[in-house]
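pls design
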């Protein structure tokens, strides 16, 4: 597919009515010149999403979700930006093939090619005489031909075969080291993985970026070796099996989350395909963002050991904080999903998934650990822990049921429990307010002004011209870079439109910062007078900083004439600043 030009994307966007598109997914009601509806990107009970026909953007005044027609479809349907563009194009009768991955592919073209060749090499090794023992081992682990093919499982042999092959094809030692295929011992390069069964790891787009290598000829330490962090492999950005599971997740609106790669492989191989693995017990903010974007219920099924239980609490708290719906599965009798299915079968696994419990029910059991509930102090500690665990849930009925259960089971006044929960929630609210205050303190008034100026510039070319003539530069690097992008966009396109600039930001590293500026600005009424006032404030700040720098130079300067020149410059700047 050909790479689509920005101008063509803009044409598709301008041909589509954002109101018509969004109203096909979410009911909208017109109020004045804008339309309002319930925001689908958070748990919204009253219409908090505004859709502007004039500006062709949407904005939620509760959760901050914002964007144009492409970003709405992208996030609502959990599809890529390229797919969203194609979908909108089809709606307005424009035929186009889109490939937004071209730039990314070019950036790591050689590295990706080398990884693909390594994958093919490992796969082919299973078909050799040396691969027979590996096949036998895999069969003993109940991994048969279809699964081996589905997951591209292979074999790394000894004698540095991979290094020799890739070197002959022209790949440099530096490149092969940078992607974690070889390492240097003494003055020689060696295959990093030798005599191990290879499980490829793919990124979210389905490109192989690393491997998990398992010993099989004899038990070694470590049993598993993973690709180190490389330019291609960032463990925190990856969910094992995501690219295979995505369609099933989107269809079922449910994603099963396990710890290990083998757990995901086992579930997938028996037909439970909406499964991904964290590749460990911890979870990163990047992985959490993936779950949030999926907008599907999470079934958290970590290992049945102490580490897995503790991780369930930690991950559960994060899911709850991010308002991601989820339930818990705690397996009994087996350590992990892999061994559970081998012993009990697919139907038993489907049954435990069907009977997943709420996070509150999990915590009711978790907080009982190592406590004697016949002891008054232990019981009080347990009750407090349970009540504290209820503060983040918005489910009023669940709160009521839990408090009623505690009251009945332990003969404690329901009123007392309710009062305690109210105080806990009030304390949490105060803590949240303090966190917000600190965040606002960190974001100085000057920072807010700069962001407002940038927002104005994204909306109208006249404000870009005012910035260029009245200011020209921001005091901070982040704001300077965004302003430069806006100026560049205007010079190239001769006009600027917020909905189109959002599309332009899609392929920029500053996308998150730009979207944050747009979502935080609630006033869409732009006046030239206000813009000039804001520019004057920043201009005055820049001159004050210049004055302070000159004062510091005067303290270090011993030459009288140079000191006088610096003083004259300071006087001049003060006059310009009106001081």
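designed seq:
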């Amino acid at each position: 597919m050909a790479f689509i030009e920005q101008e063509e994307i803009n044409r598709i966007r301008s041909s589509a009515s954002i109101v018509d598109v969004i109203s096909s997914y979410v009911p909208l009601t017109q109020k004045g010149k804008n339309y309002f509806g319930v925001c689908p990107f958070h748990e919204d009970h009253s219409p908090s999403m505004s859709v502007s026909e004039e500006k062709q953007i949407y904005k939620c005044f509760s959760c901050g979700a914002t964007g144009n027609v492409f970003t709405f479809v992208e996030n609502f349907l959990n599809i890529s930006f390229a797919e969203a563009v194609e979908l909108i194009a089809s709606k307005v009768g424009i035929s186009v093939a889109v490939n937004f991955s071209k730039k990314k592919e070019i950036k790591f073209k050689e590295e990706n090619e080398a990884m693909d060749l390594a994958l093919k090499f490992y796969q082919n090794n299973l078909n050799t005489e040396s691969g027979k023992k590996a096949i036998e081992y895999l069969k003993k682990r109940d991994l048969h031909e279809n699964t081996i093919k589905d997951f591209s499982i292979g074999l790394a042999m000894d004698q540095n075969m991979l290094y020799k092959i890739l070197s002959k094809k022209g790949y440099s030692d530096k490149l092969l080291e940078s992607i974690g295929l070889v390492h240097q011992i003494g003055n020689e390069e060696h295959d990093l993985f030798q005599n191990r069964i290879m499980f490829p790891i793919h990124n979210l787009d389905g490109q192989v970026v690393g491997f998990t290598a398992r010993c099989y000829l004899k038990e070694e330490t470590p049993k598993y070796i993973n690709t180190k962090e490389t330019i291609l492999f960032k463990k925190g950005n990856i969910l094992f099996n995501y690219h295979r599971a995505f369609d099933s997740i989107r269809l079922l609106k449910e994603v099963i989350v396990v710890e290990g790669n083998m757990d995901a492989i086992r579930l997938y191989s028996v037909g439970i395909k909406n499964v991904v693995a964290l590749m460990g017990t911890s979870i990163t903010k990047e992985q959490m963002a993936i779950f949030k974007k999926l907008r599907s219920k999470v079934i958290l099924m970590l290992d049945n050991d102490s580490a897995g239980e503790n991780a369930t609490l930690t991950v559960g708290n994060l899911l709850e904080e991010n308002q991601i719906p989820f339930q818990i599965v705690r397996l009994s009798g087996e350590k992990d999903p892999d061994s559970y299915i081998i012993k009990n079968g697919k139907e038993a696994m489907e049954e435990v998934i069907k009977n997943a419990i709420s996070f509150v029910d999990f915590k009711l059991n978790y907080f009982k650990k190592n406590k004697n509930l016949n002891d008054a102090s232990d019981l009080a500690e347990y009750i407090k822990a349970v009540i504290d665990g209820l503060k983040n849930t918005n489910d009023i009925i669940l709160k009521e049921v839990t408090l009623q259960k505690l009251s009945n089971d332990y003969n404690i006044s329901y009123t007392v429990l309710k009062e305690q929960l109210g105080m806990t929630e009030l304390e949490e609210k105060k803590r949240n307010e303090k966190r917000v205050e600190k965040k606002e303190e960190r974001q100085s008034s000057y920072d807010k002004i700069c962001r407002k100026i940038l927002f104005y510039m994204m909306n109208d070319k006249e404000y870009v011209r005012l910035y260029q003539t009245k200011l020209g530069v921001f005091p901070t690097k982040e704001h300077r870079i965004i302003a430069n992008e806006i100026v560049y966009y205007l010079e190239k396109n001769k006009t600027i439109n917020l909905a189109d600039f959002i599309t332009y930001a899609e392929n920029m590293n500053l996308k998150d910062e730009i979207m944050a500026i747009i979502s935080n600005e609630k006033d869409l009424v732009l006046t030239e007078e206000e813009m000039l006032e804001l520019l004057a404030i920043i201009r005055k700040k820049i001159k004050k900083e210049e004055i302070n720098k000159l004062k510091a130079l005067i303290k270090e300067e011993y030459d009288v004439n140079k000191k006088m020149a610096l003083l004259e410059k300071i006087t001049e700047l003060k006059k310009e600043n009106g001081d």
